[in-house]
Predict the 3D structure of the following.
Amino acid sequence: MATGADVRDILELGGVESENTGTINKKDIINSDKKKSKKSSETLTFKRPEGMHREVYALLYSDKKDAPPLLPSDTTQGYRTVKAKLGSKKVRPWKWMPFTNPARKDGAMFYHWRRAAEEGKDYPFARFNKTVQVPVYSEQEYQMYLHDDAWTKAETDHLFDLARRFDLRFVVIHDRYDHQQFKKRSVEDLKERYYHICAKLANIRAAPGTDLKIPVFDAGHERRRKEQLERLYNRTPEQVAEEEYLIQELRKIETRKKEREKRTQDLQKLITAADTTTEQRRAERKAPKKKLPQKKETEKPAVPETAGIKFPDFKSAGVTLRSQRMKLPSSVGQKKIKALEQMLMELGVDLNPMPTEEIVQMFNELRSDLVLLYELKQAFANCEYELQMLRHRYEALAKAGSIGPLSAEGAHPDGQTGLGVEEGKGDAKDQIIDVVGAPLTPNSVRRKVGAAEQGALRSPTQMP
């Protein structure tokens, strides 16, 4: 039977009391882990010597807190460059041997070090010598197909010889061309003659029924291109500045044209929306009231999105307050909200009426119509301002003498009414507006918008 000393040895327990009594106490079993941690911390703790930096002291020990080595040792751990493991095989012999480059036609001999096993092989870099395949023609082919009165056979042979020597670098060919013996030719003339012969030979030697990709050279186009390039290069600084100015003016004209087209589309949408709303209201008044009142919620006028206010539909499940349907959507701007409130106050309408079913529907329709009226008045003020500005420009041009005078009533002397150019000469008017008129300045645009808003707030109940 095991005694208490045997149990203490197994559990690695110690103590004076347990050793003297020979029995196991409660403290020995509970505090056994604490005693082990104290022993391990005492044995593995090393004190850093005075005067030694912390980084240097950290290099002396590994993660296991081992003692520093007495002799320098090489370990596989850490960042070290792996040394090359040289084998014990015999080194392959190298030899100083001559070689020739197949790309050279003069038979020059060179020497270099090379492995003895590769002796007698071709020069490895000779495969990079790429040459252009220049066609060769016979005397019979030249007389039958390639004869040209402007070119002699000797001159054509000289051209093809230079093409082989300089790999179709026609600028170099033109520089090395014998202008003393033959007629003086330009680069375009040399290219035209060469590619014309290549196309002729390809057609002659091609098998019947084959689709050929024959190179075509347009000498006239190349001459015009170089002439235009030379003119562009020889421009004066004044001409360059004038061209940049004209390009900027063209961009301004295109921008104003796009803005005018966009304003025209927006105005057309507003007019269409107003007409649609009016027709639908008339149809609702004339329709018999035999349907159930519940269907009035679903049957709403198909007004375009740009007309007035588009209130959200609460079709989700759950309980909702009817007053939420009177809340203005976030798409309405602050200026429109303030203008709407002012127009409602002038009409004597409460801003927050009792939200019954009929009042909610009619109140939303009223506010939508007021916003549509506000937008239409703004568009009318903008159009009136632009019309006045165009009239002043027209009068300025008439005084200059380029266009006939305009009467006070807007009638032209030849019998046309208004700006008489608009009906018969619409394109000419657009050109005059675009080119002559300067774009609006920020101050004038700001004054125009302010005047439009004031005009919209003065008489909210009257359409222009």
Notes: The first strand starts at residue 94 and ends at 99. The beta strands are 94-99, 110-115. Confidence is low (pLDDT under 50) at residues 291-306, 408-442, 459-464.
